[in-house]
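Shall we go through a protein fold together, starting from nothing but its sequence? Please make up or recall a protein chain and show it to me in full. Go ahead whenever you are ready, and we will take it from there.
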Amino acid sequence: MIRIDRLEYRPILSEICAELDPGQVVGLVGPNGAGKTTLLRAMAGLLRPTQGAVHVLGEPIHAREPRWRARRVAYLPQFLPEEIPFAVREFVEMGRYSHHPSGALDASDRRHVNEALDAMGLVQLQDVPLAHLSGGERQRAAIARCLAQGAPILLLDEPIASLDIHYQLDILQRLRSFAADGRLVVIAIHHLELAMSYCDRTLCLDGGRLAADGPPERVFTPELLQRVFRVDARPFRDPHTGALRLSFSAALPSIPE
């Protein structure tokens, strides 16, 4: 569904190669400044590569017009404007503007909006101004707008950042269900344990390069955690749930510049 072919965006990304398939939650992990946001923006067609290309459904996405991109890829940035003067439903309806730029929505558009509101548990809040929502509710509204686009690919930059654990788990569980329905879901995520639990695959970036790619249990080795994240940590199997967990012992000294 997405093919990243020797992608470079100098000086941030270098020689990124990967093929991402539908039906998966793919986690982008790495320390601050590793290039996660830049890679997501390149996959969304918002950045023109210095070299290489990102192909979406066989097409070089940066060469296509915005409406074409929006019908195939829904991108959620890490930060939204603080003041969005719309009710939840109005905000979610904006996801249909790539289909009807005039804003005159038809029955099919309203069905997509209704399904997105329902999928994110927002039907009861659809008439509430975004300014009155909690942080978790606001993030669910932002994801609902992405869903309303009807795009088969969701690219989400830190969708659970700054949320309490209830909303973190709620959103990740919903994202897994969207992948199970056949979408490709790519998320930048800092919480390594949640990446282990909810991602089918992880791409680990370090200094703009791909340091590891594979299932979380193969990526999060003690050696990689030490080299990339500068922590002494080891994965283990939770005896109660059977889930993989990480045991963090200590932060390691930073490597001198």
In short: The chain has a mean pLDDT of 91. The domain at 2-251 is CATH 3.40.50.300 (Rossmann fold).
